[in-house]
Amino acid sequence: MASFLIAALYKFVHLADYRALRAPLLACCEANQVAGTLLLAEEGINGTIAGSQAGIAAVLDYLRSDPRLATLVHKESWADEMPFYRMKVKLKREIVTMGVPNVHAGTMAGVYVKPAQWNRLVDDPDVVVVDVRNDYEVSIGSFAGAVNPHTASFSEFPQWVREQSAQGGVLSKKPKVAMFCTGGIRCEKSTAYLRTQGFDEVYHLEGGILKYLETVPADESRWDGECFVFDERVSVQHGLAPGSYELCRACRQPLSAQDKASEFFVEGVSCPHCHDRHTEEQKQRFRERQKQVELAKSRHRRHIGVRMEPRQAPASGDE
C-alpha cells in the first residue's frame, strides 16, 4: 500500500488575521511531519500537503478547529514516495491570483455541479464548456469538446473573457457556461468573475477534475488524457492512479514518452519545449545539478539541494 497521504484543500472565507495564522500553522505541520505548500490570504486558504495518515488528520483537525474553517473540504490521494521536499506556509494577496478586485468567490461563485451530474451538463449543446487551467495543463488532457483559453497564467483569464465576449466570440451572447479546473478553486473564482460581467447561468464542476476522476467510472467518463497535478506525481489518471508523465527539470513542462524520445531531451537539462530557450551557461548548471541528483540516487538518498521545483501550485498564482 502507498505510504503517503496527499490532501488537497481550499476554502474561500474571510480571514482578516491571516498573517497571524502562519506561524502556528507551520509549527503544526512540522510537528506532524507534514510537507507541502499552504497559502493564506484575506480571502481564504489553499494548498496541498502530504504525510502519514495520522499526520494529515492532525493538521486537518487543527485547521477545522477554527470556526471559519470548520467546513473545510479536502480531497485525498496516495503516493509511494513523499511528493514534497519541505513544508511552506506562504502569505499572499490572493489564494488564486486573478488580479481583479471585488471578485468574491465565497459569495458570488456559480452553481456547483456534482461529478455524477457533470456529463449531462457538458453534453448539452447549448452549454459552452471552458477549461480554465493553463495551456500546459490542458495539453495532456481535458474534457472532450472543451474550450481551451490558451492562457499561460490564471491572471490572463479576464482578458480572454473580455475578448470572447465581443461579437463572434464563444461567450458573445452570454450563453450557459460550465467551467472546470484541477481541484475546483479556479472554477469558483472564474464563475464569480463571469457573474460580475453579467453572465446569469454559470456552472462549475464541484471538486474539480480530481473528484471527477476519483468518482466517475472510466467507461462513463468524458475525460480524455491525464490530469496535471502540482507535485512530484506530475499527472494522474482515472481512479487517481499515477499518470505516465514526468517533469522537465529545466522548464517544468510535463513530458510524455514521445517527448522523452526526442533528440532534444536530456534528462535534467533540456526537452523539446525548452532546448532552445536556455543559455549554455544555464545548461551547464543543469548538468551539474543532474549529476548531484544521480549521485544521491546511487547512495539511496533524496536530492533536495539545488533543484528546479515543479511549477507552483495553482493557488500561488496560477489556479
TrEMBL record:
Keyword tags: Oxidoreductase, tRNA processing
InterPro entries per the UniProt record, alphabetical: Rhodanese-like_dom (IPR001763), Rhodanese-like_dom_sf (IPR036873), TrhO (IPR020936), TRHO_N (IPR040503)
Pfam families attached to this UniProt entry: Rhodanese, UPF0176_N
Top-level lineage group: Bacteria
Biased composition (Basic and acidic residues): 280-297
The Rhodanese domain, residue ranges: 123-221
Keyword flag Oxidoreductase: yes
Catalysed reactions listed for this entry: uridine(34) in tRNA + AH2 + O2 = 5-hydroxyuridine(34) in tRNA + A + H2O
Stretches for region Disordered: 280-319
The protein's Enzyme Commission number: 1.14.-.-
Segments traversing the membrane: none
One Gene Ontology molecular-function label: oxidoreductase activity, acting on paired donors, with incorporation or reduction of molecular oxygen
Database matches in PROSITE patterns: RHODANESE_3
BP term (GO), one: tRNA modification
NCBIfam families: PRK00142.1-4
Purpose: Catalyzes oxygen-dependent 5-hydroxyuridine (ho5U) modification at position 34 in tRNAs.
Family: Belongs to the TrhO family.
Protein name: tRNA uridine(34) hydroxylase
